[in-house]
Specification:
CATH superfamily of the domain at 17-128: Tetratricopeptide repeat domain
Number of helices: 15
Low-confidence stretches: 4-14
CATH topology of the domain at 17-128: Serine Threonine Protein Phosphatase 5, Tetratricopeptide repeat
Structural class: mainly alpha
Radius of gyration: 24 Å
Number of strands: 0
Largest sheet: none
Distance between the termini: 80 Å
CATH class of the domain at 17-128: Mainly Alpha
C-alpha cells in the first residue's frame, strides 16, 4: 500500500515537472520569436508542441510563433503548415490569419492572402490591413479596388511614399493619369523628407527625366544601389507602358523582376505586369 502511495506521489510530481517544462518551452518560444532568435524559437516551440501538455489555445500560440520563425527564415511552406494548425485549433485566431496571409503573399498566392486578410478583418476591424490589400489588388489586376483601398489607407497615413507611388500607378491605369499626377504632386509637396524614393515621384510628375532618376539610384552602398535601381527599373517600365512603348517596358520590368529582392513590392508588381503582358 505504501508503495502505491509513493508511486502515485511520484507520478503527480512528474506531471507537475512535465507541465512546468512545457510552460517554460512555450514561454521561451514566444520570447525567442520576439527577439528574432528564430532557430531557438523553432527548437523551443517544437518542444512545447510535442510535450502533450498544452491546451488548444496554448498550442495554437506555439504553432503561430513557430510559423513566424519559419516565415522569417523564408521557409514559407513550413510557416503555412504551422499557421494552418493554429487556425484549425483556434478558427478565430486573427494574428495567425494575418501571418498566413503574409506567407501566401510571399508564395505569390494572392487570392489566398486576400481571403485571410479579409477573414482577420471580420474577426476584429483592427486587422484591416488596407495597405497590404491595396498591393494585392494591384497584383491581381483589380486596379479600381486597389485605388479605393489605397485612398482609404492614405487618409490616416498620408506620408507613405510607397503607397503614394502605387496609388498614382493604379489611378493612371484606370484612366485618371492627369488627375493622378496632380494628386501625386500635391502629396509629394507635403513630405518633410526628400530622400529615396522622392526621385521616383519627381520622375512621374515630370520634374526629372528617366536618366536623372537612375542617376539618383546610384548609391555608394552596393545593396542599396541594387534596391534603388530595381525600383527605378519598375517605375520606368510602368512609365513606358503608359506611353505604349511595350517592348521597352518589358525589358525594364524583366530587369526589376530579376534584380529586386523577392519580397519587394516592385518584384511582385513587375512579375504580375509581365504576366498581364503575356510574358
Amino acid at each position: 500500500m505504501l508503495k502505491l502511495i509513493l508511486l502515485f506521489i511520484a507520478l503527480l510530481a512528474f506531471g507537475d515537472t512535465s507541465r512546468a517544462q512545457s510552460d517554460d518551452d512555450a514561454n521561451n518560444c514566444t520570447a525567442a520569436a520576439e527577439r528574432n532568435d528564430f532557430d531557438l524559437a523553432i527548437d523551443n516551440c517544437t518542444s512545447a508542441i510535442q510535450s502533450g501538455q498544452l491546451s488548444d489555445e496554448e498550442l495554437a500560440i506555439a504553432f503561430n510563433n513557430r510559423g513566424f520563425a519559419y516565415y522569417s527564415k523564408r521557409n514559407y511552406d513550413g510557416a503555412i503548415r504551422d499557421y494552418d494548425r493554429a487556425i484549425t485549433l483556434q478558427p478565430k485566431y486573427a494574428p495567425a490569419l494575418v501571418r498566413r496571409a503574409n506567407a501566401y503573399q510571399e508564395k505569390r498566392q494572392y487570392e489566398g492572402a486576400l481571403a485571410d486578410y479579409e477573414a482577420a478583418r471580420q474577426i476584429d476591424p483592427k486587422f484591416a490591413f488596407e495597405r497590404s490589400k491595396g498591393f494585392l489588388f494591384f497584383y491581381l489586376g483589380r486596379m479600381t479596388q486597389s485605388a479605393e483601398t489605397f485612398e482609404n489607407y492614405m487618409k490616416s497615413n498620408p506620408d507613405d511614399t510607397r503607397v503614394m507611388l502605387f496609388r498614382y500607378l493604379v489611378e493612371a491605369k484606370i484612366g485618371n493619369a492627369l488627375a493622378a499626377a496632380r494628386e501625386l504632386e500635391v502629396d509629394a509637396a507635403k513630405l518633410n523628407e526628400r530622400q529615396w524614393p522622392a526621385p521616383i515621384i519627381d520622375f512621374h510628375i515630370g520634374r526629372i527625366d528617366e536618366k536623372a532618376m537612375f542617376a539618383a539610384a546610384n548609391d555608394p552602398d552596393p545593396k542599396m544601389k541594387n534596391e534603388k535601381t530595381c525600383a527605378a527599373n519598375f517605375h520606368a517600365g510602368e512609365s513606358r507602358l503608359f506611353r505604349a512603348q511595350v517592348n521597352a517596358a518589358i525589358l525594364l520590368l524583366r530587369a526589376a523582376e530579376k534584380d529586386c529582392p523577392s519580397y519587394f513590392y516592385e518584384s511582385h508588381a513587375a512579375s504580375t505586369e509581365l504576366k498581364r503582358l503575356g510574358q
